[in-house]
Design brief:
This protein has about 80 residues and is of the alpha+beta class. The chain has one helix and four strands, in the order αββββ. The chain has a four-stranded antiparallel β-sheet with strand order 1-2-3-4, with helices on one face. The longest helix has 30 residues. It is globular and about 50 Å long.
Length: about 80
């Protein structure tokens, strides 16, 4: 594979990663009260019917989940701040 082909593939995957991260920041934002630009997403885990992640904003961690048929718009989102 040429360097150009590898570069194109890398850029494509970076685009996908950025797009997905933006979607997770979006659904977390309304639940935790932080703007999308202030949220860092980590620990993403996905299945056919649910997604879980850790959202960090302004030094606080939140555990978020989104359940329902992920192929439709009928999803429920919940985020809880980490217990200390």
């Amino acid at each position: 594979m040429t360097k150009k082909a590898i570069s194109i593939i890398f850029v494509f995957f970076m685009f996908l990663t950025t797009s997905f991260a933006s979607a997770y920041k979006s659904f977390s934002s309304g639940q935790i009260g932080c703007s999308e630009k202030d949220i860092e997403v980590s620990d993403l885990d996905q299945s056919v019917t649910s997604e879980t992640l850790t959202a960090t904003c302004k030094g606080k961690r939140y555990f978020c989940s989104r359940t329902g048929n992920l192929g439709t718009s009928a999803k429920q989102v919940s985020c809880k701040e980490e217990a200390h």
